[in-house]
Amino acid sequence: QVQLVESGGGLVQAGGSLRLSCAASGRTFIPYNMGWFRQAPGKEREFVAAIRWNLGSTYYSDSVKGRFTISKDNAKRTVWLQMNSLEPEDTAVYYCAADPLPPSVRWAPGYWGQGTQVTVSS
Length: 122
What we know:
seven-stranded mixed beta sheet, globular, mainly beta
């Protein structure tokens, strides 16, 4: 069992930056691949970025590539999402996710955080 706790959301103007954090905990922590999804009002939840825990390989959606950066600290069991050049279209609830299976086109993580709101004003 893995618990995920996000932090770092908030309100920012277009063009600004935010950094989200996700801390993983659990009695038995095996290497989990971790990532971020987001869900805007009235839209389906969509993949944003992911990172493989052992290899460090990163994956991004086309909509955030070049603006967002995912990183991790294995010792701290923490993953971050640095979001730059934010746009109003990035407004959503951002969810941290984890799974033993590596990210793929149809990655469906089994563990989720509670979500953190990111609002970008124009």
